[in-house]
Amino acid sequence: MKSVSFDFRTIADMNDFYRQFAAKFALQEGFGANLDALWDALTGSIGLPVRITLHHLAAHPHAARFDAAVAVMREAQVALEGELELRTGKS
Question: What's the pTM?
Fold first, then answer.
């Protein structure tokens, strides 16, 4: 299983998260950088199976701003029935 990590100590905002997401998954320049594009990527554009770990999210000063993206990832985890694993970690 491929493992991809995001360290929220280095992510300023949603635009930065989308940039890092696109880079880590080698998505085309046309990646829409919105929740619909995130869903489409998770369910059809990235290689599966994959484990996505979100490090230091709870400590981010604006953690709530990422709630919708985390909800999309959790929905994709359910829809993909084990092909996507989402973890949140402190380190």
Answer: 0.93
Categorise residue 77: left if φ over 0, alpha if ψ from -120 to 50, beta otherwise. Answer: alpha
DSSP for the chain reads: -EEEEEETTS--SHHHHHHHHHHHTT--TT---SHHHHHHIIIIIS-SSEEEEEET-TTSTTGGGGHHHHHHHHHHHHHTTTSEEEEEE--
CATH code of residue 13: 3.30.370.10
Q: Which domain holds residue 27?
A: 2-89
pLDDT of residue 90: 61
